[in-house]
Design brief:
Layout lengths: L2 H17 L3 H11 L5 H29 L5 H28 L1 E10 L2 E10 L10 H16 L3 H8 L6 H34 L3 H25 L4
Antiparallel strand pairs: 1-2
Helix pairs in contact: 1-7, 2-4, 2-5, 2-7, 2-8, 3-5, 3-6, 3-7, 4-8, 7-8
């Protein structure tokens, strides 16, 4: 393999790792991971996100290379707007699920021979995800990854492909970039999933609180992106 190509592929992998750390990517995966209690499942979610992200990049790169297409500013804004809307929907869903699960209950207690009534907040029981089908688990993060793959800094990366002399080298670069992004998201989603896994069997209140934070973060990042686009 040509030395310059090897260097380009190495840079592409590192840029892919860095790409996984974009704020909108972290917000989206945090919202997805917050609904599970297993680090392994969190890693699976991140992997499916990376697969969708890479698939979208390869499809777009193929179109750019084969037909010398360019991505207009209007199209780029539309794609970024769809990501912002998706982040707001994800965050809102997580918030509604977390906050809506709490119920106010009245319990009677006896203290010193006297009967007292107390109000308590309890989280409603959730279905565990032990038997969630593998493909069903990965469907949503795959779609989220596809949207992210078509927007943001990934789109800027595709513009470079119009100057690549070898179509095969261009597609290989995109593939390596996607593998780097997938590897980065695999590790990141595992780290994000740790607090949910650690609190799952210890403190339901703590897990709910972290879940609310994840949902709020996704919602706020989506609103901020929409504001940046001048749509609010």
């Amino acid at each position: 393999m040509d030395t310059s190509l090897s260097a380009a592929l190495g840079i592409g992998f590192v840029l892919g790792l860095r790409h996984a750390l974009d704020a909108d990517h972290i917000a989206a995966v945090s919202a997805l991971v917050s609904q599970h209690r297993s680090v392994m499942r969190s890693c699976v979610l991140g992997t499916f996100w990376g697969a969708g992200h890479t698939a979208a990049l390869l499809a777009a790169a193929g179109a750019v290379i084969a037909f010398r297409l360019t991505i207009s500013p209007a199209m780029e804004r539309a794609l970024e707007g769809s990501v912002a809307c998706m982040l707001m929907l994800l965050g809102g869903h997580v918030l509604l699920k977390a906050l809506g699960s709490w119920r106010l209950h009245e319990h009677a207690h006896t203290h010193g021979g006297h009967l007292h009534s107390h109000l308590h907040l309890h989280g409603a029981a959730e279905d565990t995800d032990d038997h969630v089908h593998f493909l069903r688990l990965g469907g949503r993060p795959f779609v989220v990854g596809v949207l992210h793959g078509m927007a943001g800094s990934a789109v800027l990366m595709l513009l470079v492909l119009t100057t690549v002399t070898s179509p095969l080298a261009g597609l290989l670069y995109v593939l390596v970039f996607g593998v780097g992004a997938t590897a980065g998201m695999f590790l990141l989603s595992g780290l994000i999933g740790l607090p949910f896994a650690l609190t799952a069997s210890r403190s339901e209140a703590a897990r709910r609180a972290i879940q609310v934070l994840a949902g709020a973060a996704s919602l706020l990042v989506g609103c901020w992106q929409m504001w940046e686009l001048g749509s609010l």
